[in-house]
Amino acid sequence: MDARHEVEIALIVNGVAVRRRVEARKSLVDFLREDLDLTGSHVGCEHGVCGACTLRVDGALARGCLMLAAQCDGSRVETIEGVAASGEIADLQRAFAEANALQCGYCTPAMLLTADALLRDDPALDAASARRGLSGNYCRCTGYHAIVEAVLAAARVRREASRG
Amino acid sequence: MKPAPFAYCRPATLDEALESLARLGPEARVLAGGQSLVPALNMRLAQPSALVDINRVPGLDGIRLAPEGLVIGALARQEAVLRSPLVAQHAPLIAQAMPHVAHLALRTRGTFGGSLALGDPAAELPACAVALDAILRVARRAGEREIPAARFFRGIYATALEPGEILTAAVFPTRAAAWRFHFDELARRHGDYALVALAAAARVDGGAIAEARLVFAGVGLTPVRATRGEAVLAGRRPDAATLAEAGRALDADLDPPSDVHASAALRRHLARVLMARALAGLVTGA
Amino acid sequence: MADAPARIPEGESYIGRSIVRPQAARLLAGRGQFTDDLRLPRMLHAAFLRCPHAHARVVSLDARAASSLAGIVRVIAGDEMASLCAGWVGTLAHFQGMKSARQHPLARGRATWQGEPVAAVVAESRALAEDGVARLAVEWAPLPAVTDAETALAPETPVIHPELGDNLAFSLELESGDPDGAFAGADHVYRDTFWMGRHTGVTLEPRAILADFDPTERRLTVYHSFQAPNMMQDILARHLALPEENVRVICKDVGGSFGIKVHIYPDEMATCALAVLLGRPVKFVADRLESFQSDIHARDHRVTAEVAVRRDGTILGMRVDDLTGIGPYSVYPRTSAVEGNQTVRLTPGVYRFRDYAARLRVVFQNKTPMCQYRAVGHPVAFAVMEGMVDRVARELGLDPVEVRRRNYVTAEMYPYTSQTGYFFERLSHEECLDRLLALASYRALCAERDALRARGVYRGLGLCAFIELTTPGPAFYGVGGARISSQDGCTLKLEPSGAVTCTTGVTEQGQGTDAMLAQVVATTVGVPIERVRVLTGDTLVSPYGGGTWASRGAGIGGEAALQSGKALKANILRVAGAMLQCEPDDLDLRRGKVVDAASGEVRLDLAELGRVAYFRPDTLPKDFQAELTVTRHYVPRHQGFAFTNGIQLSHVEVDVATGFVRLLGHWVVEDCGRIINPRLVDEQLRGAIVQGIGAALFEHCVYDDAGQLLTGTMADYLVPMAAEMPDIVVGHVETPTAFAEGGFKGAGEAGTAGAPGAVLNAVNDALAPLGARVTRQPITPEVVLRALRTLA
Lengths: 164, 286, 792
What we know:
Chain A contains 6 helices and 5 strands. Chain A is α+β, with helices and mostly antiparallel strands and 164 residues long.
């Protein structure tokens, strides 16, 4: 098989089938932002450290800056746009709004997706495990206190909803 | 920064991957998890001519118990290793180390083999591999070979892997029941590379350490096995005098680097502290 | 559906309520519009060749290989750029004796810091532009680098800009009272040297600019992640030789700024010049590597302090010597002297001793330029002052709380002018202290600390009292010749539907300007807050104003909104009076309804008023003109700054074996005048505190002797992440300013002002029983272990 500088990819993005031709070097997050106009995922460092580009690939969290679009041929990608539209994180969004757990909003999409993954994995998480779980997402505005509050509030709501 | 241009292919089998690597030559790199390679590409620190994406190669991501020991496939995702009951039972040292490795979003893509093949002396998994006498399985066009962990790590980002070779699995031989394990690290922030990490194992007899294995990360060009420190501890209880003597022996074992994160003196000191804490934990079973 | 009430006895006040920000929903859905999200037709991308040396001549630059690459549109270097964009000098007249060399958007012949842009490549994509940069053939001749502030003025040290004569950007000596006399008469004198590590803002959204030039109209439209659009408009017009009214600057969503994005950057000016040259949109986004090297740095200070005290803990006098090493240029237009100037002037301000002397020297270095970053100078000043106060307490065996009480400027002393000429209308140090001690159960924490010491667990408590300058008047910049607006305006328009649209000259970077102003407008006009929409950041649309910096949004923007709200309400009631044929004074506007002021009886819906005013003026008296768009401006004139005050407490545990510091808790009680939205203020404090904690423990721009930045990635430069940060408890005291009707003061920077001092004091409290003390930030394990003499 030949290695190519441009590849054809076919993937599902937010439930919609997409076919494009991309440069091999183009990152997944740049592809989503530039080729598909899905600008809700943000770029903060391109080292994989700040977390602003966090999204879902094949159902799991991934750093959009550390994956190539080319690798995602055949994959299922979900960004904040799709996840927000589905309503599945409405409780987290509400909790964030009420706690003012966002200021400039740049870290927010990634923070929401990460928080959602944490809550699915551990619905009973406490403040310390919330802080550890969010420790890969940089926020410069909030100092994290309100974000932790919001995540714990959403956890309570989800626990009550699953009981009721 | 955006990467310099490169070509890309995604072989469907291990044979195709090996054949692609051979054809593309030494300027081509294997793309597995990408969690270390892609940042290097994004800083133009690495400028390979081509990437061979092995993520779809089947059969390399399993975690299974075999007669020779616990076999962790090179493509097993780090998060899967973290959650694996087999790893928790048969390689508890690794289970203790995994929560220190990066963050969830990186562990879902990063691979177990990728961390070993990278050979970062400050990383957790290479130190664990040395401490557990892992055997690394490597595929090449001519067949397979096995490399003991103690001979695998050669320098910073330098391993025994030769051009065209692909790591396929790590085998962790079963240890006798009397062995206990303790992993710890000192990092400024949760998930960072450690300033110093210690993958420790000990065969404990009464309150004494019959035999110890101490492998440090972050203190040299490779994971460093503190053989002189181990020798001091053998057969002794980890009391203050023993620890002081072991600490002095450790100074001969370790030649840590100085960098912007820590001086050599700090790393030496932290290594001593980690050793004392690990031994206390191993002996009490904590 | 319930009937609308027939009577509304009272209007609704939104002041003091924690309403949810209107912008939150949009941002939570990923619908932010950050500058890099914007695309314009035929848009190009710029990338820069940056000097890899701290100081080097550009011997030769060959662009042929770069220019021939497919997709590369233009390559440009310093001399050609200078013909498009005039250079600048970052000095202000009121900093007497200040000097700085002319700076250009692209270095001409010589680069003076690692990261200085030397050439630009414009291409169809960012990746291609970088490919072009990689193909530029450059020969550098490295020159000696000036990297030690202590020797910057020594005769053997090279002078970075020979035409200036030396490496001194600015110096200042202050004296108040008789410090020599105070020292001569003291029972004790204590001296310490503090080193504050250079650090930087690390906004999560990097700097971003998209400039579009239409040559047919000679109009430049710039989308900019920035705090002060009118300032940028003015500077672009002057330096690109365009009429001011032909330049439009639009700040959409800004992903964090904190002062980083209020300065002039050569790469951003170059990008705008390229748009003019090419007649096409050109975008530049700094990547993270560029950010570390080229965003302004801050707070690189060595401060030597001595205090003279009486044995009862009364401070008699103080001397401070501040040496700060900036970059090779003072940054334009606000200058790099402000941080040092504020440091030496703020240091003694909490306390009432009068005998004070300070010396400041600001020296050039071959390092990234340094300028204002959140809480400019305050964190250094209060780490020094409060560090010395705790030292005094420890040396004399006194309670650090009582030493503060003994020395505070107290309630009956206001109005008060500080040792360095700052005017305080009224502060509340004692009240804040009392509230903090209660909020934190301080004495209980002290007892617990003492009990744990006996078990070899070393915890510490550290206080840091502070003042914060907010709401600056014209003397701050305008007086020095800078075209930076100290006034601000608010335009309110009643829509036919009864909604109110507000445009303002203050801007939004996430602090909640949208909510804050909506609350003021809704309250003052008398409409439900859901009907108010706030728009910011467009020079073509917003009233001329200063933007956001020095915590001016509430005090200046809020007051302008209040005055505008009053004026709109009066005009609405005039229309209502004309419609209802009664006196406007007999009417009121409450919750969107015109009511009888005395009885509260609902007379008219605002939508009905809008319909008549806009579509049926034929039904109104012939000589009556409805004016339902009003603008009011405001500039504070009665005091130079609306000072605020507060106090913070840090609770730490130091692992004395490893030197690691664990943050157990943090408290702040702050007085920022009348609070509009308590939750927004609390969150500003929390975010600002964590930035201060970052400086205290983690963040450091480290240079080697050759001027190479060693902490140039997110892996090497450590920012605070969630797992290491404490919960932060907030309390408030409210002392409104009487000089403005709203009584609002600023709150954006107070958290950063006091956090480093609190953490420093807490660590020293923990180490005190072991005879160790630290005066260096960031307080790394290395610093702690050296203080403990565990490491040599």
